[in-house]
Amino acid sequence: MAQAAAHCPGACGAGDAETGKPRKVALITGITGQDGSYLAEFLLEKGYEVHGIVRRSSSFNTGRIEHLYKNPQAHIEGNMKLHYGDLTDSTCLVKIINEVKPTEIYNLGAQSHVKISFDLAEYTADVDGVGTLRLLDAVKTCGLISSVRFYQASTSELYGKVQEIPQKETTPFYPRSPYGAAKLYAYWIVVNFREAYNLFAVNGILFNHESPRRVTICSDSRGDEHLIPTWKGVHPRSLQHRSQQPRGGNSPVSVSTGPQRRSTNSCNIGANFVTRKISRSVAKIHLGQLECFSLGNLDAKRDWGHAKDYVEAMWLMLQKDEPEDFVIATGEVHSVREFVEKSFLHIGKTIVWEGKNENEVGRCKETGKIHVTVDLKYYRPTEVDFLQGDCSKARQKLSWKPRVAFDELVREMVEADVELMRTNPNA
């Protein structure tokens, strides 16, 4: 069992030389994603110095954290810094960790699209599975085993073909996708480092959690899928270091959003996160920009919470005296069908269902128009039909509980997308 250091938040090492206060330095992989952006906000509010790892690519999808650069405290005082890096590159991870010397590491970076993992199985294994090992090895190489606390973003997809209902920390795993299998390796390598090297390392087995920051993917008429950043604009300050930093290496970087692709006004709109696909499509229907959209398994049931609630749980896990794995969930189950119905109710439409299986459609009761169809291409090769988490341990030991109810989550996502599509229909 890993033993806690004389505890301050994040198992802080030496204090700040000027203030004498314990260091609170967090390193986040996947900082530009939904969870990473909420976590960065959360930690900055708690006075952390936050570092994020971003991949060097032809464009950056950093809209979710742009507002943190607009924040004078975050930018001028340098409380958030980004570094080029990749979970597939051991050397860069060692350099970043050695430079930053974090007291907490949150490994949120992943290829996180379950359906895509069937097409990119090897890449998913390399990033989500072996990438976690690379990050843990970097901590060990840098001699920080005793001073770092490590959070691993595990997933309810570990349970896959569920062996018991609801699922808790002791429920046997049965992943049903390359994504789930890769995350299973990551889960056990974290446990291995905890037991073999006394590293304070924990797995957060988070059930589905959503927000307006969930990524959107669109399919055009060719059937190609393109990532669509959902925030536009670059704050001038966020570019001020670009001309001062060298192109190579792991220098801190400032960021901008990449170009947006044009979406199509047809049933071909697609997304790999079904909740955001629904809220986005419903918003476009409300604004007259779309008439219908297609989904896969309407009867898949999930335990949905709000991402903002769940990042608090991540932090709480690293503040305990002993490292333990936790399930984070709401304990409530809702179907994709119900998510659709609730979303339409928020724009004043009632959906009634007609037909069966791939011939089922969702028709608007008020207008008679078909707004939802079923397309078999959105089914997974192996479906996960039912996931429900039991977070009793987290409630008891972390004093954590979800705050945002399902109806509120759906309303927030739909309203955010209505505003987004009103100002930028092609987002």
From TrEMBL:
The biased composition feature labelled Polar residues covers: 241-267
- Residue ranges of the region described as Disordered: 235-267
EC number(s) given by UniProt: 4.2.1.47
Cofactor(s) named in the record: NADP(+)
Q: In which pathway does it act?
A: Nucleotide-sugar biosynthesis; GDP-L-fucose biosynthesis via de novo pathway; GDP-L-fucose from GDP-alpha-D-mannose: step 1/2
Asked if the Swiss-Prot or TrEMBL record annotates the protein with the keyword Heme, the reply is no
Domain NAD(P)-binding, chain residue ranges per copy = 27-214, 266-413
Biological processes annotated in GO: 'de novo' GDP-L-fucose biosynthetic process
Going by the entry's taxonomy, the superkingdom of the source organism is recorded as Eukaryota
Which key words are in the record? Lyase, NADP
Statement: the UniProt record of this protein carries the keyword Secreted: no
- Top-level class of the enzyme under EC nomenclature: lyase
GO molecular function terms noted in the UniProt entry: GDP-mannose 4,6-dehydratase activity; identical protein binding; NADP+ binding
**CDD domains noted in UniProt:** GDP_MD_SDR_e
Gene Ontology terms, cellular component aspect?
A: cytosol
Q: Reaction catalysed by this chain?
A: GDP-alpha-D-mannose = GDP-4-dehydro-alpha-D-rhamnose + H2O
Database matches in Pfam families: GDP_Man_Dehyd
- What family is this? Belongs to the NAD(P)-dependent epimerase/dehydratase family. GDP-mannose 4,6-dehydratase subfamily.
Per the entry, what this protein does is: Catalyzes the conversion of GDP-D-mannose to GDP-4-dehydro-6-deoxy-D-mannose.
Instruction: Quote the PANTHER family the UniProt record gives.
Output: GDP-MANNOSE 4,6 DEHYDRATASE (PTHR43715:SF1), GDP-MANNOSE 4,6-DEHYDRATASE (PTHR43715)
Question: What is the name of the protein in this document?
Answer: GDP-mannose 4,6 dehydratase
Origin organism is Bos mutus grunniens
Q: Give the encoding gene's name.
A: GMDS
